[in-house]
Specification:
Elements: H1 2-5, H2 7-25, H3 33-66, H4 70-73, H5 76-106, H6 113-121, H7 127-139, H8 148-179, H9 193-202
């Protein structure tokens, strides 16, 4: 973890981030369009495999560590804290989006209140949060502050928050879109592809 590795962690991550910014900003023009499409498909597949492995590993850790720990799984306080944490996550996201709404509205593509509502409700947690919880679990038991029980609680809360956001928020986002009347295509997007192809072929090209 960063605060335990100190300058060594920063010396490793800083060049990696600089390299990522360089490739995303300048090196993209060095690839042809066909190569960019191939790279896009390749890295999408790598990300999908990595996410799958992280979810499988998190499930194994939760099954071994959480289900076998009576203090976490069978304790009513942990489940109460989980529900309170889920509410806190939603409220904190609402506060952040609300505080930044004036900037999001007038800069970039612009954001109205309907889009802000979807931005708040569709905030799903996934592989990044699970990876951090697994890192905490792996580092637990080495100090008095970070005990094995604390590491198990990290995995328990993070895994269940990810589960709740995927099941509750993810499955109900389509109903929120329908309620806000945002599930309909605009007139330009509703034009059939055959019509667009016909217009593109028969439209006189500029010399």
């Amino acid at each position: 973890m960063l605060w335990r590795m100190g300058p060594m962690a920063l010396s490793i991550r800083a060049p990696m981030m600089a390299k990522m910014f360089f490739y995303s900003t300048f090196a993209r023009t060095a690839f042809k369009r066909e190569s960019q499409q191939s790279l896009h498909i390749f890295w999408e597949m790598v990300a999908y495999i990595a996410n799958t492995l992280i979810f499988i590993l998190s499930g194994v850790v939760i099954a071994e560590g959480v289900l076998g720990d009576d203090n976490v799984f069978h304790h009513g306080t942990s489940w109460t804290h989980l529900l309170l944490l889920y509410v806190y996550v939603q409220v904190s996201r609402c506060i952040v989006v609300g505080a930044l709404f004036p900037l999001l509205r007038y800069f970039g593509y612009g954001l109205d209140w309907k889009e802000a509502s979807i931005l708040i409700w569709s905030g799903l947690r996934g592989a990044v949060a699970l990876s951090l919880s697994l890192s905490v679990k792996r580092s637990s038991g080495r100090s008095l502050e970070l005990t094995l029980e604390t590491g198990t609680l990290f995995v328990f809360f993070t895994g269940d928050i990810v589960f709740l956001t995927l099941i509750v928020n993810g499955s109900t986002t389509q109903f929120v879109l329908h309620y806000l009347d945002m599930d309909k295509l605009t007139a330009a997007k509703d034009i059939p592809s055959e019509v667009l192809s016909f217009v593109e072929i028969h439209l006189p090209k500029k010399p």
